[in-house]
Amino acid sequence: MPTNGLTYPHDKxxxxxxxxxxxEGVFWxxxxxxxxxxxxxxxxxxxxxxxxxxxxxLGTTETRDLWVEIFESSLRxxxxxxxxxxxxxxxxIGQAGMIxxxxxxxxxxTRSEYYQARSMFSGFSSYGANWLSQEFYQRSGMDTSYLxxxxxxxxxxxxxxxxxxxxxxxxSEGEHAAFPVGFRRLQEGDVLTIGGHDWLxxxxxxxxxxHACLFCKSLRVLLSGDQILPVIxxxxxxxxxxxxxNPLKVWMESHDRFLDLPESTFVLPAHNLPFYGVxxxxxxxxxxxxxxxxxxxxxxxxxxxxKALLPVLFKRELDARQMMMALGExxxxxxxxxxxxxxxxxLDEDGIYRYLSxxxxxxxxxxxxxxxxxxxxxxxx
Length: 381
Known about the structure:
Elements: E1 2-3, E2 6-7, E3 20-23, E4 26-32, E5 39-47, E6 50-54, H1 61-73, E7 80-84, H2 90-93, H3 96-103, E8 107-110, H4 111-118, H5 131-139, H6 144-165, E9 167-168, E10 176-177, E11 184-186, E12 191-194, E13 197-204, E14 211-216, E15 221-225, H7 247-258, E16 266-269, E17 275-276, H8 278-299, H9 310-313, H10 320-339, E18 343-347, E19 353-357, H11 362-365
Parallel strand pairs: 6-7, 7-8, 8-11, 15-16
Antiparallel strand pairs: 1-2, 3-4, 4-5, 5-6, 9-10, 12-13, 13-14, 14-15, 16-17, 18-19
């Protein structure tokens, strides 16, 4: 099934609680998610004497129960030997505690992702709860009413998010399996030998600090997590916790490196369907963000706040929570433009940052009316 230069060998996802072998010793399964995505893709790698789990799903009772089905029906009597989490987002680590506790096996993650996961829900309880977050959003052009709305939404969702992070183990015993207290570190260039195949650790950044992908040259398979998705574009944002970060720069640099992957690579992503066409997809992702930045430059021929740039990136009205995520994406694009000396940032007397295009070559490069259509809304992935 070819689409936009990509080919999809499978036209549907596995049913929950079942697996499909998509390469030698590589099994694909899905777990449910809320919202428009509806699912996350997870993978099992078969070794001679056990299995490695790659990403774990949300920390919900439904996901835990589906994992129990998998353990009982799909492991061929062999235990889990380890859990590999590509990065620290809740849909990837939510059952890491349950699985590592159940089988008494290690968690494998990169260092930055592990410690970011450990601190995910500490010290940053709402958008408006501390001066750092207040200053960050106010300098972006947000008034206090939006901060209050977003703060209420964050507080309303806090118990749900905490439940997704701290996974319930055996509900009948009333216990919780918290996120693992230790891990085995993955680094760029590490090789994991599983089932007679070598899996090379390739680290990307931008969507998260130190995202681990796994590439097997002999199978020509890439487990890409959220780093490379075939349909949606992963969220790349600046957050109040690191207000001067430049995540889009490292995201683009990461994708430049992934372009070295063989054209024949079979990509197993965390969302959407597995596909062939890694290089066309990477080029499309890079070009999309280049187009977004040029559209921002064209809009900033007069000084603009980050909030004023949202209609350039998103086409529909956003609720308070989406607004804060969208701001993070807009600021990420602006920070890369600042790095490239295409725009400048001015802190006005009202305490708000405004961005102004300064590249004299803009007149030649611009093409208003011919940009990619704005996205519907910021993706939660």
